[in-house]
Amino acid sequence: MGAHSHSDSFSYRPIGKYDFEEFIDMAIRFHNYPAPGLLVGGYMVEEAKRQIPRGVLYEAIAETGWCLPDAVQMLTPCTIGNGWLRVVHHGVYGLVLYDKFTGEGIRVWLDIAKFPKDSEIRTWYLKLRPKIEQDSDRLRHEIGMLGSDILSSGPVKVRKQHLGKRSKGRIVICPGCGEAYPAKDGNVCKICQGNTLYEPMPGMPKGGFLTGSHPEA
Amino acid sequence: MGAHSHSDSFSYRPIGKYDFEEFIDMAIRFHNYPAPGLLVGGYMVEEAKRQIPRGVLYEAIAETGWCLPDAVQMLTPCTIGNGWLRVVHHGVYGLVLYDKFTGEGIRVWLDIAKFPKDSEIRTWYLKLRPKIEQDSDRLRHEIGMLGSDILSSGPVKVRKQHLGKRSKGRIVICPGCGEAYPAKDGNVCKICQGNTLYEPMPGMPKGGFLTGSHPEA
């Protein structure tokens, strides 16, 4: 935090029930470093939570895979693995929390029209200078001072076709590798169809994706 | 945990440095409930970590979006938001931890050939009975007793084209909505191209995705 954190002449905005400094510690533990996108994301998630009526069971959409999904996972019950958080790669710092039954919710986004002129947050968000020339202490200071002042928000409604529980459907045994997979994926599992990002190495035991029917075998 | 948790005649396998019961508490806090897929996922992640040489900077691939990504996020520094965890939807309980520079790593998967006959874990994984008729106490007991005995593993190498840092590239201002977006997405941002899962509601302020150029406006 540099010299800023030792001054008493200002105070950072809390992120929900956490002090800004507490949230930075949480960010280091979960995300490995207090990325600017995660810190602004904290304010975004809390702003959306504030506007969602109490008691509503909500799910989340993050409009970028950069940092923002982790703010959602840290501050709400929605995670990638439980399926209540969806990440869509639309390249903007926007997120939606919505009623999982009705689809009604709140969209919050980082609004560049609200960024102070010559601020480090503008430099960072618009990449006006290379990362190495950015002042990360000043950037973090600005984020903590501005809090939700640089956000905009408004109501949205998630379309019906995107609501409802995800389902794997019927499970069958793959004739290629002998493992279980969702029948809807095809006649053999997706791995035996060649969908891997990697190749097996010498010493890979039989089973799993290394079989006679596998295109890489 | 039912009656099983009060017995002293057996002990559950630890998940890395955590007791099985501790990991269940962590699973409830992060994932909202101790899903079977998350518990087996815990053993899978720890098995892969055990086989990765110490000091290697690794990244992760989860081969299903069901539960498994959360085990990775709970037990490694890799998260969706920091980009060190990738989720591919191949429908199998498999995961890879790999050296982010060389691509060399370990694949671990749930191996149905190692499931005991008539086990609840077989019933669960192959969906042999509807969820409502499954015995979740017995299932959890089996998972804690079997630990990594039902896993297989082997070396893999992530292909070169999938290695390397993700990059947003150049950032530009969208002529549609005035917000910043990655230039590589096109002439207007993806939101202004109509890529939303939701529609704006009355009261949505101007800015963000509700603009004259937006197909839904």
From TrEMBL, chains A, B:
UniProt feature coiled coil, ranges: none
Annotated Pfam families: FmdE, zf-Tbcl_FmdE
InterPro entries documented for this protein: FmdEsu_dom, tRNA_methyltr_O, Znf-Tbcl_FmdE
Domain FmdE-like treble clef zinc finger, residue spans: 165-199
Ranges where the Formylmethanofuran dehydrogenase subunit E domain occurs: 30-153
Family annotation (PANTHER family): DEHYDROGENASE, DEHYDROGENASE-RELATED
Protein name, as recorded: Trehalose-binding protein
